[in-house]
TrEMBL record, chain A:
This is Multiple sugar transport system permease protein. Keywords: Cell membrane, Membrane, Sugar transport, Transmembrane, Transmembrane helix, Transport. Pfam families: BPD_transp_1. GO terms for cellular component: plasma membrane. Residues 88-296 form the ABC transmembrane type-1 domain. SUPFAM superfamilies: MetI-like (SSF161098). It is a multi-pass membrane protein. Belongs to the binding-protein-dependent transport system permease family. PANTHER family: ABC TRANSPORTER PERMEASE PROTEIN, INNER MEMBRANE ABC TRANSPORTER PERMEASE PROTEIN YCJO. Signal peptide: none annotated. It comes from Nonomuraea polychroma. It is found in: Cell membrane.
Automatic annotation (TrEMBL), chain B:
Belongs to the binding-protein-dependent transport system permease family. It comes from Nonomuraea polychroma. Residues 65-254 form the ABC transmembrane type-1 domain. GO terms for cellular component: plasma membrane. This is Multiple sugar transport system permease protein.
Length: 304, 269
């Protein structure tokens, strides 16, 4: 439909300019913009409205409560305070524990895979393969592998650790499984970054008599700074968004300590139908993430 | 040689769990619960797959497989159409508000994806789409990644071709269809695969917008399976295999494209 109109409006203006009909760009954009406005922009704005109400999905009356949903989050005597901050702490812990591994290990693997050698594409594919699987499959598999009675992991290690139901092992399981699952993604980003570092820099380092380590420190690492910023930013965002692993692998066990903020928020909103309160929590989480991102950008910019 | 030793050791860590899951799906229930556990089935059997495909009204696994296929393919086609049109305008046309619009669209890539899930749920409910395949196909196509990815690719195509075509009286619709799209096959293929993968694997959105087993896709279906056949590990692993094999094959076939596409799109701002 849209495309037909686009044709009609541009056919007349056959002049060699960068654009023909005034409406043409908007007609090309229209289908996407409709989706974007309804499913991205509208929810972002509507969420603020919801957060200002006592919004129960199942009830008719949704009284306006102003900032009550927000103040409750900062009031230690409120019903949600303890659980919300415990979940924020869990998200913080998960991010703090997983990001260093997801930044450093893929870098090591990318270094191994960077030089041309036989089977490079094959290995690249192998390390990336788990990333192709969904969180449901990954968690189902690892729940059984980590089972204290039947699991292969405890048997191979000769231990009987309750990986998914005790602390600190729950964190080890969540971080370990996440690293196994997503490490290939960051590895590929690093590989692309390494290919963009000019060869001359390495040749110059050789002339200066730099060894492998000096080469890595003075050429590779500085060359990867923008890539690192990208990797750290996307990994922090992904870790702070963590839902599936906590929901499926540890189910928040032992006592809610490994239940992340997203799991808690979605349970409050879509499980308990307290959508106003849950929306307020989403914005608090988003704000916290924006602060972290700004600090992250500052750190990387400051050093260059 | 040292490189290979390290790589092979690492590769085992990455692949062994996948092979083990495949092996477990071929075990009998007694073998799957034997202590000490066996790594590979001693007496392989396809029983788990039989049980899985039989299904029940609560666990119609083949139906889930079909739903996954319909949802992922449907969304992929929608993403390709709307993203390529929008990306063409953003890469090739001049108009008022272009910078702001692009900024807003790309800005959403930086916002944690799940924070708007509750209002998005309310909107889907208002549209009457809850518990339908439409809810699995349409809202997810609004993501900014496809537009951003294709715009970056379109920017790299030679402009002389467009200009020559415009001189000859072609309009932008012709250029888009006859020049831009044919030259962008690798980018379109990459986006198609990435879009398919993410929809096929999505777990969080379907568990909230779908209520009846008939409309589930495989990932939420797997979590029901776990409850329905509580201790039947081979059946559960067979489900995991069923959900993974299509995407692993798809990935193996398109590996170069996908890895290249991911690495390029993220970096070239």
């Amino acid at each position: 439909m849209t495309t037909l109109t686009a044709k009609a409006s541009t056919a007349r203006a056959a002049t060699p300019v960068a654009w023909s009909g005034r409406a043409t760009p908007y007609l090309f954009l229209a289908p996407y913009l409709v989706l974007f406005c309804v499913f991205v922009l509208a929810p972002a704005i509507y969420g603020v409205w919801v957060s200002l109400h006592d919004w129960d999905f199942l009830l008719e009356g949704r009284p306006f409560v102003g900032l009550d949903n927000y103040t409750a989050l900062f009031d230690p005597s409120s019903a949600v305070y303890a659980d919300f901050w415990m979940s924020m702490r869990a998200t913080g812990w998960f991010t703090l524990l997983s990001v260093p591994f997801l930044v450093v290990l893929p870098l090591g693997i990318a270094l191994l895979l960077n030089r041309p050698f036989r089977g490079r594409t094959f290995f690249r594919g192998l390390f990336f393969a788990p990333y192709v699987l969904g969180v449901a499959v990954v968690c189902l598999m690892w729940r059984l592998l980590l089972d204290p009675n039947l699991g292969l992991v405890d048997w191979l290690l000769g231990t009987d650790i309750a990986w998914t139901t005790s602390l600190p092992w729950g964190w080890v399981a969540l971080v370990g499984v996440t690293v196994w699952w997503t490490l290939g993604f960051n590895g590929v980003i690093y590989l692309a970054g390494m290919q963009d570092i000019p060869r001359e820099l390495y040749d110059a380092a050789k002339v200066d008599g730099a060894g492998r380590w000096a080469e890595f420190r003075h050429v590779t690492l500085p060359g990867l700074r923008p890539v690192m910023l990208f990797v750290v930013t996307t990994t922090v965002l992904a870790s702070a968004n963590m839902f599936g692993q906590s929901y499926l692998l540890t189910q928040g066990a032992p006592g809610g300590e490994t239940r992340t903020a997203i799991v808690y928020i979605l349970d409050q909103g879509l499980g308990q139908y307290k959508m106003g309160s849950a929306s307020a929590m989403s914005y608090v989480l988003t704000l916290a993430l924006i602060v972290v991102s700004v600090i992250n950008f500052r750190l990387f910019r400051g050093r260059s | 040689m040292r490189r290979y030793t390290v790589l092979v050791a690492l590769a085992v860590v990455f692949v062994a769990p996948l092979l083990w899951a495949l092996g477990t799906s071929l075990k009998s229930q007694t073998e799957a619960t034997r202590v000490p556990p066996t790594v590979w089935p001693a007496e392989p059997t396809a029983r788990a797959y039989g049980t899985l495909f039989e299904g029940t009204t609560q666990t119609p696994v083949l139906r889930w497989f079909a739903n996954s296929l319909i949802a992922a393919t449907g969304q992929m086609l929608l993403v390709l159409v709307v993203s390529s049109l929008a990306a063409y305008a953003l890469a090739r046309l001049e108009f008022r508000g272009k910078r702001v619009m692009f900024g807003v669209i790309v800005g959403t890539l930086l916002v944690p994806g799940f924070v708007f899930l509750i209002p998005a749920f309310l909107i889907v409910d208002a549209l009457g789409w809850l518990d339908s395949l439409t809810a699995l196909i349409v809202p997810g196509a609004a993501g900014a990644f496809g537009v951003f990815f294709l715009r970056q690719f379109f920017l790299g195509l030679p402009r002389e071709l467009d200009e020559a075509a415009l001189m000859e009286g072609a309009n932008h619709w012709h250029i888009f269809l006859r020049i831009t799209l044919p030259l962008s096959k690798p980018a379109l293929a990459t986006l198609a695969v990435l879009s398919f993968l993410s929809n096929w694997n999505d777990f969080i959105w379907p568990i909230f917008v779908i209520f009846s087993p008939d409309y589930f896709t495989l990932p939420p279906g797997l979590s029901i399976l776990q409850g329905a056949y509580t201790i039947d590990y081979p059946v559960i692993m067979a489900g995991a295999v069923l959900a993974s094999v299509p995407v692993l094959i798809l990935f193996a076939l398109t590996q170069r494209y996908v890895i290249e596409g991911i690495s390029r799109s993220g970096l070239k701002g």
